[in-house]
Design goal:
Layout (H helix, E strand, L loop, with lengths): L1 E6 L3 H12 L3 E7 L3 H11 L7 H7 L2 E4 L6 H10 L3 E5 L6 H13 L4 E4 L6 H4 L10 E7 L11 H16 L4 E9 L8 E8 L4 E7 L6 E8 L2 E6 L4 E9 L9 E4 L5 E7 L8 H15 L7 H15 L3
Parallel strand pairs: 1-2, 1-3, 3-4, 4-5, 6-9
Antiparallel strand pairs: 6-10, 7-8, 8-9, 10-11, 11-12, 12-14, 13-14
Helix pairs in contact: 4-5, 5-9, 7-9
């Protein structure tokens, strides 16, 4: 078991603490949070060991789980890496691309592993179909959330849309060519609603919409590729694959058949993959433990986290 400690005991930090304590791959050593009064309440209520400083926690563990506000990600990660500790760092990886690149360099220099908390990679609705996503040419995402003051210290692109940016970059095997975007601030100091169009060198186009002042929650992505359409509902954990194939010689009388202007006929097939319930946060944490133990590449590497941030910044720069 890997000895792990958590930096940050806010809403998400408490979830990480609970899951690390439950995990059979980690030994939860304790946590540190600079807000002493709140930290003491967490320690008293749940029995976790509260460290007096970041330095003391880092010295006592092998893995540092960074669940602090984005502004402090870089300094926390730097301190941990320079002491030879592996880091799990919540998304976005850092506040700036320069900081993200520095973290990548440090991790390589000190021979430590790092994973970024893009948890939607572990959403069962996505994992059920990700191997079926093959060279998509158009992708459309909608990530809408009811207003919550938590997270409004950063633009909605870094708060919400970055999840979809990471998913898209993980399935499109091509470099970003151009980005067009617009965003408006409604209640926050930074944009609350944003729309972006990402064009890739291979011709794929992705259209992303994110809002944190919606009347309802929605997290849907649709992938369009040759002879197939794949829909993923990250919120309801459902997915669907619609395929078009050549019509067989003797089609079923209830078969759905389309015919184009040239007379070519295609039959439509529907597939709803079985979705296995899971705890995506626990899965991402334990996958990182496996990467450390086996010396393999993490599912969401520091490089991928930095690339998602780079594209997010390209979108923000359009505003």
């Amino acid at each position: 078991m890997l000895k792990a400690g958590v930096l940050g005991a806010g809403h998400l930090g408490k979830i990480h603490l609970r899951l690390l304590e439950q995990s059979e791959k980690y030994e939860l050593v304790g946590f540190y949070d600079p807000f002493t009064e709140d930290a003491e309440k967490v320690a008293k209520e749940f029995g976790y060991r509260l460290f007096a400083s970041i330095e003391e926690l880092i010295a006592a563990v092998e893995v540092v789980d960074i669940v602090t506000p984005t502004l402090s990600h870089f300094e926390c990660a730097k301190m941990a890496i320079e002491k030879g500790r592996h880091i799990f760092i919540e998304k976005p990886i850092t506040k700036t691309v320069v900081e993200a690149e520095a973290i990548k360099t440090l991790a390589s220099q000190f021979h430590v592993q790092g994973q970024v908390g893009h948890v939607e990679r572990f959403n069962p609705a996505f994992t059920a179909v990700k191997d079926k996503i093959d060279a998509p040419m158009f992708i459309e995402t909608h990530r809408l959330a009811e207003f919550n003051p938590r997270g409004t210290d950063v633009p909605v692109v870094l708060d919400l849309m970055i999840h979809d940016i990471d998913i898209i970059l993980s399935v499109v095997d091509s470099k970003v060519k151009t980005v067009h975007a617009s965003g408006i601030s409604v209640i926050s100091e930074t944009p609350d609603i944003a729309n972006a169009r990402i064009e890739f060198e291979n011709g794929c186009v992705a259209n992303l919409t994110a809002s944190r002042i919606s009347m309802k929650n929605m997290r849907k992505t649709r992938f369009f590729q040759k002879d197939a359409y794949i829909s993923v509902n990250f919120l309801e954990k459902k997915s669907e694959i619609v395929r078009m194939k050549d019509v067989p010689n003797n089609p079923d009388e209830f078969a759905m058949i389309l015919q184009n202007a040239e007379g070519v006929k295609k039959q439509i097939y529907f597939d709803n993959p079985e979705i296995e319930n899971n705890n995506a946060i626990l899965d991402e944490l334990e996958s990182f433990a496996d990467a450390i133990e086996n010396g393999t590449k993490p599912v969401v590497s520091l490089r991928q986290g930095a690339e998602a941030l780079r594209v997010a910044q390209m979108i923000i720069d359009c505003f």
